[in-house]
Amino acid sequence: MTDDFETDDMLAAEYAIGLLAGEERAAAQNRATTDPAFANRIIEWQARLAQMADLAPIDPPEAVKSAVMGRLFPKAARVSFWQRLGVWQALTAGAVAALLLMAALMWQPGPLGQNGPLYTAEIVSEARDFRVVAIVDKTANEVTLTRTAGAAPAGRILQVWAHGPDAPAQSVGLWPEGDTVRLTLPPEISLVTGVLTLGVSEEPPGGSRTGSPSGRVFGTVDILNVSDAT
Q1: 206 — alpha (psi -120 to 50), left (phi > 0) or beta?
Q2: Is the Cα torsion angle 59, 63, 66, 68 positive or negative in sign?
Q3: Which of 110, 113, 143, 221 is the most buried (most CB within 10 A)?
Q4: In this structure, what are the phi and psi dihedrals at residue 110, rounded to the nearest 5 degrees?
Q5: With contact defined as beta carbons under 8 Å apart, do 117 and 229 qualify?
Q6: How far apart (Å, rounded) are the C-alpha atoms in residues 55 and 106?
Q7: If DSSP states are collapsed to H, E and C, what string results for 99-142?
Q8: Domain limits at 127?
Q9: What's the whole-model pTM score?
Q10: pLDDT higher for 192 or 88?
């Protein structure tokens, strides 16, 4: 039972931090829709990882990385997903900071929900040339987005969209410049529960003139089990 719990918890952490892709991510997402316990683990990890927005980028010494690996994965026979993906070699300093935060939270779990429901997700283009980390705060009904790769083409701007299940995309706001933007969710979007879909497109200055995405849609992401702040 303990092994199953740890395996599910690690899978939920991989999903929340955006390490799953393709069939693995789809399988985890489908499971979350039918397994409330697993869905709750994802929500808990999303809330914990939302705190990474307060961390400044760091470059941990090799000894620190080795200590984290040794404490998280003490069994020599077990190959961690970090090792399997070669993550240490590829991570930026900011991403390493987020992973170290995740490790610290695994060692010292604390109470969740003190600031209300928080949800994190990553929007990634199919070409992998555009990435955005999004944090939805249902207490304030705001979404904070940070670009970690890519940008709008010259003479264009970014526009953020959202919608609930079986609903058309609605503009959340414009993102004309800067790596980070904080936007207030429109009333209709703030009332969405269950699955909330976020997306980013590139549009002409002033935003789409059609009321829907008219330029390249870099990508979308479904945030599961969204609830009211109350």
Answers
A1: left
A2: negative
A3: 143
A4: -125, 180
A5: yes
A6: 17
A7: HHHHHHHHHCCCCCCCCCCEEEEEEECCCCCCEEEEEEECCCCE
A8: 118-226
A9: 0.56
A10: 192
